[in-house]
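Good day; I would like, with your permission, to put a structural problem before you. What I wish to show you is a protein chain and, alongside it, a tokenised description of its three-dimensional fold. Please examine both parts with care and let me know of anything in them that strikes you as inconsistent. Thank you for your consideration; the sequence and its tokens are set out here:

***
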Amino acid sequence: MSDFAAERPLRITPDMLLSRRIDFERRMRRFPPVTAAIIALLIVVFAVELGAHALDSARAIVGMGALVRQGVAAGEYWRLVTATLLHGSPDHLIGNAIALFILGMICEHAFGRGQFVVLYVLSGLAGSLVSLLWGPGPSVGASGAIFGLQGAAIVLFRQHRDRLLLRDRRIGFVLLIWALYTIVTGLLTPFVDNGAHLGGALGGALVARRLHPVAITPLAPAQQARVRRWLWVIGALGLYTLVGWTGR
């Protein structure tokens, strides 16, 4: 028998198949600083809401900066942002904070701090825009932006499933429970708009297709420059929002 015929075929093992894949959860940071800063900001804003009795009536929450079609039509475009910082109840805030921490941990690790800020803000704006089409308002809540993170996570793991190893049963179950909780909250809590959830999810999915996952490879210099330009735009948007909000 020849040497070729005597050679036994190489058996492919699971370890070989996963050699190019990155264990996403193992490398994920336990504490996402940008996500934590956003949650802290939401808590501070909610405390201001309570102090101003903004939850007492629809008129009060509108005066605080809720999203209303009439106000945006009058030129108060800053409401597209301020509405994402307000919440309609303690349960609304707590549910969003928990979901934001989980999804923020995923997306901030996947895309890096700069791209995460871009993703979060653009998702929130997309949610506000669809909310205007959905109804006249008033509506408030960060869940549009958070649904954007969920949409981005789905795109990430779908596009890069050959490079990322994910224990999806655990994370998928948590995201499903949160999505159901948020939808029910949107139906039962005043000022919460499910239109923003849909818009945010679609916006986040679209934005994620243009982002580079730094969890796989670092950003190239040209990509870093593009992210910086977007952050300057977001900074200008934040300044405009602050001036319009405080000067209302």
Remarks:
- The chain has a mean pLDDT of 81.
- The two ends are 90 Å apart (CA to CA).
